[in-house]
Amino acid sequence: MANWITSGRCLLLLVVVLLIYFGSPAMQLFNALLVVVMISLDGLDGYIARKRGEESVFGATFDIAADRMVENVLWVVLAHVGLIPVWVPLLFIARGELVDAIRSHGAAQGTAAFDMLRSPLAKVIVGGRFMRAFYAVVKATTFTWVIFWSGVASLSSPFWAEWSSLIDMISQTLIVTSAALCILRGAPVVIEFVAARNEHNEGQEGSREAGAV
Fold first, then answer.
1. Per residue in 83-141, pLDDT tens?
2. Which residues contact 204 (CB under 8 A, 6 or more apart)?
3. Stretch 190-199: mean pLDDT, rounded?
4. Which long-range contacts (CB under 8 A, 24 or more apart) does 114-123 make?
5. Could you give the CA distance from residue 191 to residue 102 in angstroms, rounded to a whole number?
6. CB 61, CB 107: distance < 8 Å
7. Nearest 5°: CA angle at 169, between 76 and 132?
């Protein structure tokens, strides 16, 4: 069931993207609501998996892949239509590729993504429910805000002329906050992976030295 919900998020993403490109300004207001629903389903699939005892390495990996696809596609599309700066999708894609490569290494050994974290702080920042929910809310708010006001800008020129500066300032704040959280939640994964590899290499060197003695 959880995996079906995750698949539904991917289909809903296609609808959102089509509306961004081909929907009328009025449809962008509805499209903003669809974004909220799509990202909210991320929490639902995880809840269903835990409730039904369907948690698995595949499910966790599929969920993360869907998360990455949703956010990367939306960042790229919004940059392509000129609603956000291009550095934003570049940052999210680069961070995602790096973290996912590390998680793939763990998945190959049968370790779920969040089980790779060792320190309590890393578990809170990356795997904690509050941080995951907060990050999702910030991204959802950013996507919704940008898409919603893109429709209003065309529907009400006088209103937009009066309030565009404030709206743009809030947009930039949301975008920068999303980017900062992206880096904050990715850094512990990289740091712990490097530390684990160094410990492993030091252990091998110590074993070789002991064997030589």
1. 999 999 999 999 988 887 877 765 555 554 555 666 777 778 887 888 888 988 899 99
2. none
3. 72
4. 114/60, 116/189, 116/192, 116/193, 117/188, 117/189, 117/192, 118/192, 118/196, 119/188, 119/192, 121/188, 122/188, 122/189, 122/191, 122/192
5. 11
6. yes
7. 55
